[in-house]
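Exam revision sheet. Question 4 asks you to relate a sequence to its structure. Input first:
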Amino acid sequence: MSERGGVRHFLLALQFFTRIPVTGRLAAWVGYSPAMLRASAAHFPGVGWVVGALVALVWLGAVRALPAQPAALWVAAVFSTAFGLWLTGAFHEDGLADTADGLGGSVDRERALAIMKDSRIGTYGAATLVLALLAKLALLVLLAQAGGALRVAVALLAAHVTSRLLPLFVIRTLDHVGESDGSKSKPLADRIANGAVVVGVLWWLPVVPLALYLLPDGAWAAALLGAALGGGLVWRLLQRRLQGFTGDGLGATQQVAEIGFYLGLVLGLGAAA
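Answer key, structure tokens:
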């Protein structure tokens, strides 16, 4: 892959998964094709760097601006989480809700896939989404209480990058399922190559020294284990219930891996204390 091609694929991923404007002449230069979108999957963790850094800045700004009161951490967590939802268009959260509706609404594979294609949110999706958001808020506040505001900022950055690496392994190891018409994930139906996973890992690697510098080794390892277990749980559900992945399943993988990262980090910090 040429350097110019890599930049175009990264910008396409940024355009597809965030509200950051890639328009006008820049969009024309980037271009689009199903093959390019498939190649852009390698840069999912790169999008995590952008989203995670911006969300972390909002968190730090809110903590600094708010009065030094216990409730300030909750307000900062709400502001940073809300900003992240706006920045990504709640793309992954929508996938989590649809996946929960499908897998919770029917044990039949075809019926579950049909439910997941329905744009309306059901009981399982609503309950899962509310619980997921509450879990994020509570874990961020607990992280701040256990490790301080700066460690939360590092956790936000590392979690967004790490959780966007996990879907690459889902795409690489499972088949795309469901109807192809109108499916946003259809360009990913042909499994990505090992090289794309390697590029994703290269995007992720710079997180390691940053996290090791600011987090205890055991806590960092626990965070990675939590993300891996969260992503692995969704992988197992997709493999067992659907015999493959959908775009919604990729969003669910990212969300559960992100929550698993925060939970593992909280437990790791507690053990290190």
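Marking note for examiners. The chain has a mean pLDDT of 91.
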